[in-house]
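A student in our group prepared the protein record below, which I am reviewing. Here is the record exactly as it was handed to me.
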Amino acid sequence: MSAVSARPMATARLDLLPLEVAHAPEMAEVLSDPALHTFIGGAPHTPDALRARYERLTAGSPDPAVTWLNWVIRLRDESCLTGTVQATVNGPAALAEIAWVVGTRWQGRGIAGEAARGLVDWLASGRRVRTVIAHIHADHHASAAVARSAGLAPTDIVEDGETRWSRAL
């Protein structure tokens, strides 16, 4: 799985661009609303803290069996970043755990769903991933809708108050 890396992808309205440290200043603004942390905890990162986080993410997983894939979401018509989408791929298990976040200003426009569908389609096309999962807080109805739009379905597994959603590829 180590040969898999984030590559640019395009959907109808979006460009999914491999994460770069240089994205941190714009993304710090995109992700600055404390409401984005309602279900995941924490607080918005400063540009410097986000830069340090992106340095760690772009360096890759310290576990050679695990691949971190991260993209920023660019809304093509507005030529701006709107959020992120990611997959943590466990090669031996052929499992990808995905996640997404879209800045408050761009929510409700189908961006997260379109990005998640693009990511799942990409993972399904020859990436040796057999199962995609996401963990979603039971009260986070918008994320549940995103998961559903990407073809995932809720399971009976609950971890730390989050339901595991799954899709076999």
